[in-house]
Amino acid sequence: MKISVLTPDRTIFTGNVTKVSLPGTDGSFQLLDNHAPLVSSLTAGRVTVVTGSGEYSYYNEDTSGMKKESTPSRSLTFSIDRGFVEVLNNEVNLLVQGARNMR
Fold it and tell me: pTM (2 decimals)?
């Protein structure tokens, strides 16, 4: 499934993933390929994505720009402020107040 993690001023991550773990306001939950349509609120916490095959891009805080990579599978974690997630047609959009790459 394709995912975009967006803040008001930048894109944090875009690419194909096989799994997403999210901090929902009623508890953590996961999204997998072909998930049913969904809109949910998110609380501050960690978002973990597991990349699938293909290229993905993420915001590199060291260079203040997007960095492209292509690896078979990788787990990436972001710290987010509150926001919303929308799932429709195997596309996931995270709209969050702020996000930072975890080190």
Answer: 0.89
